[in-house]
Amino acid sequence: MSGTKLRNRLFETIIVLFGISFITFGLTYLAPGDPVRTMYAVSGSIPSEEILEQTRESMGLNKPFFIQYWNWLAGCLRGDFGISYSMNRPVADIILVRLWPTLKLAFTSLAFMILVSVPLGMLAAVKRNRVADYLIRSGTFLGISIPNFWVGMLLLYVVAVKFKLVSVVSMGNGIEKLILPAVTLAFAMSAKYTRQVRTAVLEELNQEYVIGARARGIKESIILWKHIFPNALLPLITLLGLSLGNLLGGTAVVEVIFSYQGLGNLAVSAIKAYDYPLIQAYVIWIAVIYMVINGLVDISYSYLDPRIRKRSEI
Predict the structure, then answer these.
(1) pLDDT digit string (tens) for 216-236?
(2) Which backbone phi and psi does 311 adopt, to 5 degrees?
(3) I want to staple 28 with a disulfide (CB 3.0 to 4.6 A). Which of 54, 100, 142, 276 is the partner?
(4) How many angstroms separate the Cα of 26 from the Cα of each of 19, 30, 65, 74, 112?
(5) Distance of CA 105 to CAs 62, 98, 118, 206, 236, Å?
């Protein structure tokens, strides 16, 4: 990617993040409920209306919308996302503590997804309209149709409760705490990705270079892994970036089911407690991560496809 394109991409990212921050702040501003009253309720005290009003004034919640937004945005640019209403701690510290568990969960799910979907997708493409293809496609239909929460609860009952292979609650460190949440997240994603791999490989199987390689007597396995798979990789990388973004933003339900202490679980708790600074920071962090991942995917194109690299050099 050339320097000009990189600058343009950076400028687009800043504009999008600015829009996301404005919409997020606006929605939380318009949301019903009183965060000050909720904050006192969490601490177990019921103050008078006078004290509530003084607290609103000290927190700047009585100021006009645009002044509140500007103060919040200026703080975010300095790395200060405010103080959590429900935990009474800096939001940035809370987010950083919960970020690593969510990243571990997302990348483990992604690894499971790749290990399952790439071989199955290629097998389904090679064995097109045969028994293996029908079985794999039927499995992917099930994977796409069954909701994540149901898969999670089923795994929880069978693996943790019935056979006691892992603990019911996925709190604390250790790879065993990641297994059930990661498999739950990877289940539906694997089904979607298997179908995408099958489609991409099928398109490549009909190309002339494949027919030429077969005519030269090259082994089918070599054609598949050394010629077809690298060419099918480009559209799959785009989907991989989107999948990782979906995993990072869509872990909330699974984290709650398994009591996993990640960002999604934190976001649900923040919503229930009307903890606006925490909700706003969560959205901004997820948006930044999502955009960084997509930016890296775009940059990787020029390294994986020489045609894109040539065009960017012109």
Answers:
(1) 888 888 888 888 888 887 777
(2) -65, -35
(3) 276
(4) 10, 6, 8, 16, 38
(5) 40, 11, 20, 37, 21
152's tokens = 């999670």
263 by Cβ neighbours in 10 Å (0-12 / 13-18 / 19+) ranks as buried
Instruction: Report the alpha-carbon distance of residue 105 to residue 257 in Å, rounded.
Output: 14
Nearest one of 291, 258, 255 to 270, comparing CA atoms:
255
3-state secondary structure 148-160: HHHHHHHHHHHHH
Residue 104 CA to residue 124 CA, distance in Å, equals 30
DSSP string covering the chain: --HHHHHHHHHHHHHHHHHHHHHHHHHHHHSSS-HHHHHHHHHT----HHHHHHHHHHTTTTS-HHHHHHHHHHHHHTT---B-TTT-SBHHHHHHHHHHHHHHHHHHHHHHHHHHHHHHHHHHHHTTTSHHHHHHHHHHHHHHHS-HHHHHHHHIIIIIIIS-SS-SS--SSSTHHHHHHHHHHHHHHHHHHHHHHHHHHHHHHTSHHHHHHHHTT--HHHIIIIIIHHHHHHHHHHHHHHHHHHHHHS-HHHHHHTT--SHHHHHHHHHHTT-HHHHHHHHHHHHHHHHHHHHHHHHHHHHH-HHHHHHHH-
> Can you tell me which residue has the tokens 């997804």?
113
**Which residue has tokens 């950083």?**
96
Report pLDDT digits (tens) over 297-308: 877 777 776 666
**Residue 208 has which token pair?**
């002339």
* Residue with token string 């701690």: 89
Is residue 70 very low, low, confident or very high in pLDDT (cuts 50, 70, 90)?
very high
> What residues pair up with 83 in beta bridges, in sequence order?
90
- How many C-beta atoms surround the C-beta of residue 184 within 10 A? 26
- The pLDDT mean for the chain works out to 84
Q: Crossing angle of helices 276-304/65-77, nearest 10°?
A: 50
